[in-house]
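Incident log entry.

Two folding requests arrived from the same account within the same minute. Monitoring flagged them as a possible duplicate submission, but the sequences differ. Recording both here for audit purposes.

Request one:
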Amino acid sequence: MLFVTLLVASLWPIGTDAFNPYILLVFSIIAGKAAYRLPAIQACGIGIVLVVGAIMPDLLGYPGFPSPFLVLYSVILAIGLALFRTVWARYEESSVRI
């Protein structure tokens, strides 16, 4: 439901050329929360839905970030979240051993 609300909010200024860049920040926060709280498969699913949601305004002709930028940003964010998940799993394993 939160994603649908954010998608509507990102498409809201229909008649203007203004784009709200904070939607990308909120999508990144949701992806980070998914990586932190969900299993890896579910977090990947949320990530795919968020990438599609971020690219949708550009595909529908609304003002937004260009698709190559969003793809590059998504890849960098995915690498960062995967590294976080790996380091966090190692930390959890080491704290159980102590």
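Request two (distinct sequence, not a duplicate):
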Amino acid sequence: MARKRKELPLLEKVEITDVAAEGKAIAKVNDLVIFVPYVVPGDVVDLQIKRKKHHYAEAEAVKFHQYSPVRAVPFCQHYGVCGGCKWQVLPYSEQIRYKQKQVTDNLTRIGKVELPEISPILGSAKTEFYRNKLEFTFSNKRWLTAEEVRQNVVYEQMNAVGFHIPNAFDKVLAIEKCWLQDDISNRIRNAVRDYAYEHNYPFINLRTHEGMLRNMIVRTSTTGELMVILICKIEKDEEMVLFKQLLQYVADTFPEITSLLYIINNKCNDTITDLDVHTFKGKDHIFEEMEGLRFKVGPKSFYQTNSEQAYTLYKVARNFAGLTGNELVYDLYTGTGTIANFVSGQARQVIGIEYVPEAIEDAKVNSEINGIRNTLFFAGDMKDMLTQDFINEYGRPDVIITDPPRAGMHQDVVDVILFAEPKRIVYVSCNPATQARDLQLLDAKYRVKAVQPVDMFPHTHHVENVVLLELKNPAEKAED
């Protein structure tokens, strides 16, 4: 006999007091910390506990008794369902304030290192339509909201294209309008959807992997170029004929597309890194521009998704590097070499290291396109590539710029940085918590000289943070 689940309590008239990670807010009841989504400090709500641990709980706001005076009205019709842009209920000025607090709290509580005054966060000029890339998923199982279920809403068309619902991998929320990317993205997605409905194209079943339409990626550019990638499962010749008809429809309907590509994916997963990309119309790439530099962006390339704020971020990193033209710079986790190429004009030489071989090939191409001849790029796992032997061969860096993934830097990488003893380290991070941990590891030889948060993703809790570290005893290094 199955054990009866313990009924979790309903807490009445609880005030939300703070903002937490992952876009959630915080309430406290009898020393119990409760994490709640889609509420803001100052809201007074009834909370239904959904999950309870010893020191914290997770809950859902089921009734509002009082709305916070700083609460904003969400502008997106999909808010609260798709799982993105969770901070739409906070005015942007409040989002910026809490992101500044997030950086400060992480660096002081986790890092426990001496800090200078942290500079005010640099906000994004655009808070809507700021992304340059979105990926949409097709599914034959449309997600029905709780309200639609209560009202017994019946849709004639249960195929959907949009975003995955959190914790429901096989269901997709049908998106009518997303405010993240230029509106051309909405028009293309909806046109493809309507054409597929009209011509009875089968959408993929994400459990059985039956069906044809799988994914669509749209990439825009500050240069005005536009890339669309359609990804389908094709096993029969007649399916390929239908697919080509869809591609032709897209090409005819949207002549502004400069790069129309397609990928055949007959696997059980959605990754495309190991698949061939075919060009249906135009070029197989688009370009981004920054200070006269051109960066080639292919279908699999990584590029910061907020192009305009990426420029702000890179200017901060370059300024912190304090380059005079004589320095050897190491750019760790270089990706497609954007930062490496961006700072190369003020350095003697820049060496970039990145795990993904395709990204390194893009980095080399970007140097070639821009006539940059003082860069070297290497592909491999950072902890295996950045060794004392590597430094002995290619030279001790004067400056290290590091922009690791959310997990931060491996201990071996930190150890080699400490061995190399560059004069300055510029640490760019999308996760101030792991950045704080790494700063503590570097504290043996380095002091934090400056901190500059940069907001890349309005209406989310994510924040980029740039930290400048300087060697504590450069004189001793010179004597050695």
